[in-house]
Amino acid sequence: MKQLISTICIVLICLTGLVMAFVTGFSFSDLQKDTLTILGIVCLVSILFCFIVGELSNNNSQMDKLWSILPIVYVWIIAYMADFSSRITIMALLVTLWGIRLTLNFARKGAYSIKFWSGKEDYRWDYLRNNTMLKNRILWVFFNFFFISFYQNALVLAITLPGIAIMESAVPLGIFDLLATALAIVFLFYELIADEQQHKFQTEKWKMIKSGQALHDLPYPYNKGFNTTGLWAYSRHPNYFGEQMFWVAIYLFVIGAQVAKYGVFHWSIVGSMLLILLFLGSSALAESISAKKYPEYALYRRTLLRYFPITKFRG
């Protein structure tokens, strides 16, 4: 029941944010329009690249490779167009640190290659390709274009929209900017620690498996097949939690710039809310795959919340 309540709360919060974003209305200055035009062109090129290369190479992780790079490009374009104002420059530096960390983490999984179209593909795309419905070639092409290439590119652009929102603010840096910076750094390190723990666990597990040991013969906790140590003993997806909260922290700069109507809500909240909803679906897919592979995963899922570290797994 607590799992269901937690999920419902997350969805309701996101939907409230999205509704309020539209209630506050959309208005752009000429500078914002010009900047959005540039970002839109970059986004369109990326959409076409991801779709065409993904189809030709049968590797649908093209957008995965760009996920951590495009936000850096977007925020520095915004910073340039805004004459490197203090607030946006701080935001750009934080996003750059985020992007470097995520790119390096993805690179060590073998995702990048000199042959830019190759590299290790995210296991979930192959799983979905074998889905009963998506086995149909035409439906997969539509899925590749509209979700993998178009929607994800649009979402990556959307999470950087707080930069557009604040680019003409004359409000001096204040407490919300300090809070946004502090929280962004905290969640960046939280995500870093979670990824390091996961990498260490999986590396050691596969090292033993490749040496000839069966999974059930591995020492505890590797015999479970999935990580239940460190931050992963308190949350099923600490890396996802850190990722989402980082972008919520970035949105706080909008409040600091005093451009949000009603004190909190602004149209640029759309990106972070849609990101949270995307991760609900992404984590659910990953968990369904894990539950089929690992017998004890069902207990792990019942014991811990998806994101919030409230209880500890002792299985």
Structure characterization notes:
- The chain is mainly alpha-helical and 315 residues long.
- It folds into two domains: 1-28 and 188-315, no CATH class; 30-112 and 120-167, no CATH class.
- It has helices spanning 2-24, 30-57, 62-66, 70-81, 86-107, 123-129, 137-158, 161-166, 175-210, 238-256, 270-293, 297-303.
- Helix 4 runs antiparallel to helix 5, helix 5 (86-107) runs parallel beside helix 9 and helix 9 packs antiparallel against helix 10.
- The model has no long low-confidence stretch (mean pLDDT 93).
Give the helices and strands, then pairings:
Elements: H1 2-24, H2 30-57, H3 62-66, H4 70-81, H5 86-107, H6 123-129, H7 137-158, H8 161-166, H9 175-210, H10 238-256, H11 270-293, H12 297-303
Helix pairs in contact: 1-11, 2-4, 2-7, 4-5, 5-9, 7-11, 9-10, 10-11
Feature tags:
315 residues; 2 domains; 67% helix; globular
Biggest sheet: strands, sense, closure?
none
Tally the beta strands: 0
Number of helices: 12
Give the CA-CA distance, first to last residue: 20 Å
Estimate what percentage of residues fall within beta strands.
Answer: under 5%
User: Helix coverage percent of residues?
Assistant: 55-70%
Order of helices and strands: HHHHHHHHHHHH
Low-confidence stretches: none
Overall geometric form? globular
Rg of Cα set: 20 Å
Structural class: mainly alpha
What is the arithmetic mean of pLDDT?
93
Total domains = 2
